[in-house]
């Protein structure tokens, strides 16, 4: 009985992980497989990666995605961190409402957020394009940044800042020498999160991308819809490896950030 | 003080105003118009889109279908995810726990579209699962799951399972270990400890996970399109096509608000429990 | 010469009055304690002095200079926080040097001062460590060193020993007192631990309900409490309520409800027939037959209901009519009283404290 239980726990979790990883592993295998129709046996070939190097549409979309993700990260982290500071260091009437206002972009289906933005941007002349996609990504990222940075702010005691002040530090010195260094792991974690969120974001970009301009997920979607080429497997493999690399860094940092 | 506050938080709320709140208001406005006021002078006020949604079978059937899909996906995520979270939080120790948890979270950071797409390679009859099944069981039944409702549910469960595992894990591992010991010392069986201590205390995590899953699944359109083929029509895909192919924006907007209302009702029902979790 | 001058300070949080017209002055070099139950207002007062709380009314002056509108970082104070608030991302040396560094002192001066303080708190060689690598007691010393480094006008201590276990706390009290004497810095301590306040302070203010209940030397507030609250908050006390029935030769007689009369050498000026409450410390009571000091003339008899053994002392609860009176005896040669036995309690009139 005891032996059974000892096997059961890792066994069950192992099965869940198998379910989670099956499609990812299949995709990676297919990225290196020669057959276009996923036929087995497996024959190792890098031809899809070579083809990828000549697929200008995909590469341009990838470049767009990276640029948007970087600008999104800079903007959302700056705005989100300032908001987190305002919300946790000030007490004012109606604060609960301001916190509540962060929730819609977290909890509404992206389909609704995306179509509403598309309609509004079109109507007002903001239009569609990379700038519109950026507007949308930042709106989605800010609440996450606020929550990550705020939880970090909560984790370190307010008395650290008070201690700095009473030791003679000005508001500026307190921020740069105490608050900012302690906040840094949270800010880096938020930045990684914002980057990944933007880089993977499909729904919002899909509605805000005009014909001829696209981001990587939008380009992949249209390739899938058109009839697929295995180059998608190749680039997806690269994305997954890249995203997972980011995630591992993120996990390291948030673990570090968790320590008081 | 008010000035510095506005300086700190102002840009964020201005941004959200332009990208979230004004668009939502515009969408609400559009939903009551006969035609979208994009090209020329706009349409006139009408309730016909809302009337259509609640009277024409095509919308009602698909709304129901999307709701059922949301409930089913949420249910399967809980069924698979809660035990996994329980084992991770209360049975598996230390270094293993950290590594396994990281593995659970990892796929959720790879591109959702790509993950969904890779299921087509697994689920189609000549996909991997099918081919291996034929090798193991020659002459066995064909496993053609792709382009079916089942495929959509599998893809969505796969996409959202990590949310459920994470939220349940967080609330399960926050339960003080001595509570279970106290219950045992008072004569409770392991089963009773679970039913009367662990489950009620972890319920907020289960509810939070359910909301995080139900809300996007009800509005899903990409997964049904990629995995569902002809079967892949949901309320979400109909909304999407109003905006991208039929160009009936007012109808799409009205459908969007009906969907939002459903989501809000569900959130309102569970909000008391969710708030407890957030605190 | 007063260093800190608190004049009629009030502070309100919503409906609750945290500070109600509080005034006091603290002298140069004094070790002054704010003692009271939690929520009584002592922390609000300390934080008002520090500048974290802005009083609604009244003024706080340091060296004769009003502190209203003086920013926290220009008040020239040192403070030890309850959780120490050591900067986790800095070394011990950087923590200690922080106050000088933000004042843009020279590197050499800062390093010199860090060295002095590390040796003052006996942490030589710990400069390069991080706070989390130190024990609670060591962190506490670092917090003290950090607060003292910029040579503050006043040192504020907010329950600084609360997180330590009893033995370490006792050691740190002695250490703290020693260092305070050595440095000579005016010190204000907030604590809810009466023993800590009595041990460390030159003067104690007992604060409750936002008001100063009593202010005086530890001996004064313990031996001559003015109110029932002070008498019971500082140590233990038996209370007797009765009517003044005689005044002669500096002695006051109080008749208890059951008819016994007790004598007090305090309470002059109470008119005959007025109702008073008197307090007697359990350790001032003696069982007749044991060798009590002096010539006691108060005597009450009753039956021993229960006893509490505390190692160095034993407390007996004696039933006298409807009242239970406690008597604490040193665990020395005194003959042990037995449960259920008749006991005669005696004490000196000087130990009957008539409360206001």
From TrEMBL, chain A:
Cellular compartments annotated: Cell membrane
The question of whether DNA-binding is a record keyword is answered with no
The answer to whether UniProt assigns keyword Transferase to this entry is no
Q: Identify the residues that the record assigns to the ABC transmembrane type-1 domain, covering every copy.
A: 62-250
Q: Where are the transmembrane segments?
A: 12-32, 66-88, 100-123, 129-149, 175-197, 203-222, 234-253
Annotated coiled-coil segments of the chain = none
Q: Name one Pfam family in it.
A: BPD_transp_1
| Membrane topology note | Multi-pass membrane protein
Q: Which UniProt keywords apply?
A: Cell membrane, Membrane, Transmembrane, Transmembrane helix, Transport
* Main location, first listed in the record: membrane
Q: Which species does the entry assign this protein to?
A: Pseudomonas typographi
Give the matching CDD domains: TM_PBP2
Protein name per UniProt: ABC transporter permease
Say which family it is in.
Belongs to the binding-protein-dependent transport system permease family. CysTW subfamily.
From TrEMBL, chain C:
Q: Does the keyword Nucleotide-binding apply?
A: yes
Q: Pinpoint the ABC transporter domain residues.
A: 4-234
Q: Which Pfam families match?
A: ABC_tran (PF00005), TOBE_2 (PF08402)
InterPro entries from the xrefs? AAA+_ATPase, ABC_SmlMolc_Importer, ABC_transporter-like_ATP-bd, ABC_transporter-like_CS, Mo/tungstate-bd_C_term_dom, P-loop_NTPase, PotA-like, Transp-assoc_OB_typ2
Leading EC class? translocase
Keyword terms of this UniProt record: ATP-binding, Cell membrane, Membrane, Nucleotide-binding, Translocase, Transport
Q: Which GO terms describe its molecular function?
A: ATP binding
Q: Which reaction does it catalyse?
A: ATP + H2O + polyamine-[polyamine-binding protein]Side 1 = ADP + phosphate + polyamineSide 2 + [polyamine-binding protein]Side 1
Its EC number is: 7.6.2.11
PROSITE patterns from the entry?
ABC_TRANSPORTER_1 (PS00211), ABC_TRANSPORTER_2 (PS50893)
User: Quaternary form?
Assistant: The complex is composed of two ATP-binding proteins (PotA), two transmembrane proteins (PotB and PotC) and a solute-binding protein (PotD).
Q: What the protein does?
A: Part of the ABC transporter complex PotABCD involved in spermidine/putrescine import. Responsible for energy coupling to the transport system.
Family named by the database record: Belongs to the ABC transporter superfamily. Spermidine/putrescine importer (TC 3.A.1.11.1) family.
- Protein name per the record: Spermidine/putrescine import ATP-binding protein PotA
Species this protein is from: Pseudomonas typographi
Per the record, the gene is: potA
């Amino acid at each position: 009985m005891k032996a059974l239980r000892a096997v059961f726990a890792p066994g069950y979790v192992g099965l869940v992980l198998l379910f989670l990883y099956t499609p990812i592993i299949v995709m990676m295998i297919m990225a290196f497989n020669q057959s276009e129709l996923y036929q087995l046996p497996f024959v190792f070939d890098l031809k899809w990666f070579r083809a990828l190097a000549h697929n200008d549409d995909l590469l341009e979309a990838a470049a767009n995605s990276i640029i948007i993700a970087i600008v999104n990260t800079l903007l959302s982290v700056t705005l989100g961190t300032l908001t987190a500071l305002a919300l946790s260091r000030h007490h004012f009437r109606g604060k609960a409402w301001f916190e509540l206002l962060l929730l819609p972009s977290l909890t509404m289906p992206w389909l609704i957020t995306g179509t509403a933005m598309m309609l509004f941007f079109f109507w007002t002349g903001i239009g569609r394009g990379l700038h519109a996609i950026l507007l949308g990504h930042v709106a989605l990222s800010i609440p996450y940044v606020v929550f990550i940075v705020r939880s970090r702010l909560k984790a370190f005691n307010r008395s650290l800042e008070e201690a700095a002040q009473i030791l003679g530090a000005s508001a500026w010195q307190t921020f740069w020498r105490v608050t900012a260094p302690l906040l840094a792991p949270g800010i880096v974690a938020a930045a990684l999160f914002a980057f990944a969120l933007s880089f993977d974001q499909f729904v919002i970009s899909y509605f805000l991308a005009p014909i001829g301009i696209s981001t990587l997920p939008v380009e992949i979607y249209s390739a899938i819809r058109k009839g697929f080429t295995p180059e998608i497997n190749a680039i997806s493999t690269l994305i997954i490896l890249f995203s997972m690399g980011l995630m591992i860094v993120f996990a390291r940092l948030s673990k570090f950030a968790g320590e008081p | 003080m008010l000035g510095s506050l506005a300086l700190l938080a102002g840009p964020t709320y201005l941004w959200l105003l332009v990208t979230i709140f004004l668009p939502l208001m515009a969408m609400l406005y559009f939903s009551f118009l006969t035609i979208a006021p994009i090209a020329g002078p706009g349409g006139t006020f009408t309730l016909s889109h809302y009337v259509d949604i609640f009277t024409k079978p095509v919308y009602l059937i698909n709304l129901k279908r999307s709701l059922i899909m949301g409930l089913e996906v949420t249910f399967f995520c809980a069924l698979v995810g809660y035990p996994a979270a329980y084992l991770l939080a209360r049975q598996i120790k230390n270094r293993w726990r950290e590594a396994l948890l990281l593995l659970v979270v990892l796929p959720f950071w790879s591109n959702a579209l790509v993950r969904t797409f890779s299921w087509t390679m697994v689920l189609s009859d000549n996909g991997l699962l099918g081919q291996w099944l034929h090798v193991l069981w020659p002459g066995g039944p064909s496993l053609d799951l792709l382009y079916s409702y089942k495929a959509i549910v599998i893809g969505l469960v796969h996409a959202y399972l990590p949310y459920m595992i994470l939220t349940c894990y967080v609330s399960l591992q926050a339960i003080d270990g001595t509570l279970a010991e106290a219950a045992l010392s008072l004569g409770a069986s392991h089963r009773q400890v679970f039913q009367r201590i662990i489950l009620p205390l972890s319920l907020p995590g289960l509810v939070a996970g359910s909301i995080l899953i139900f809300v996007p699944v009800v509005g899903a359109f990409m997964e049904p399109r990629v995995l569902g083929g002809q079967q892949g029509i949901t309320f979400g895909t109909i909304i999407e096509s109003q905006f991208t192919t039929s160009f009936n924006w007012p109808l799409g907007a009205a459908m969007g608000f009906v969907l939002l209302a459903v989501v809000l009702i569900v959130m309102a029902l569970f909000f008391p429990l969710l708030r407890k979790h957030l605190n | 010469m007063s260093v800190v001058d608190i004049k009629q300070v009030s502070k309100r949080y919503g409906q609750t009055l945290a500070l109600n017209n509080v005034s006091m002055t603290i002298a140069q070099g004094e070790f002054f304690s704010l003692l009271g139950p939690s929520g009584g207002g002592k922390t609000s007062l300390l934080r008002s002095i520090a500048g974290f709380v802005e009083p609604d009314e009244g003024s706080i002056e340091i060296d004769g200079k009003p502190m209203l509108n003086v920013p926290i970082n220009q008040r020239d104070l040192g403070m030890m926080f309850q959780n120490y608030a050591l900067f986790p991302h800095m070394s011990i040396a950087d923590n200690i040097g922080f106050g000088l560094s933000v004042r843009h002192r020279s590197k050499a001066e800062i390093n010199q001062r860090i060295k002095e303080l590390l040796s003052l708190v006996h942490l030589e060689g710990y400069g390069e460590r991080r706070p989390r690598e130190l024990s609670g007691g060591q962190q506490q010393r670092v917090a003290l060193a950090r607060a003292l480094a910029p040579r503050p006008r006043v040192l504020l201590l907010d329950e600084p020993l609360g997180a330590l276990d009893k033995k370490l706390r006792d050691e740190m009290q002695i250490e703290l007192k020693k260092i305070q004497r050595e440095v000579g810095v005016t010190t204000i301590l907030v604590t809810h631990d009466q023993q800590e306040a009595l041990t460390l302070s030159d003067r104690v203010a007992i604060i409750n309900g936002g008001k100063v209940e009593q202010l005086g030397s530890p001996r004064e507030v313990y031996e001559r409490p003015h109110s029932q609250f002070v008498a019971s908050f500082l140590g233990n006390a038996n209370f007797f309520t009765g009517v003044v029935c005689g005044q002669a030769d500096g002695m006051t007689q109080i008749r208890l409800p059951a008819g016994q009369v007790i004598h007090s050498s305090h309470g002059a000026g109470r008119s005959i027939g007025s109702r008073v409450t008197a307090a007697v410390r359990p350790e001032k009571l003696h069982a007749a037959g044991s060798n009590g000091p002096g010539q006691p003339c108060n005597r009450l008899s009753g039956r021993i209901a229960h006893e509490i053994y505390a190692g160095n002392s034993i407390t007996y609860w004696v039933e006298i009519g409807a009242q239970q009176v406690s008597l604490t005896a040193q665990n020395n040669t005194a003959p042990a009283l037995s449960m259920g036995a008749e006991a005669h309690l005696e004490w000196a009139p000087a130990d009957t404290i008539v409360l206001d």
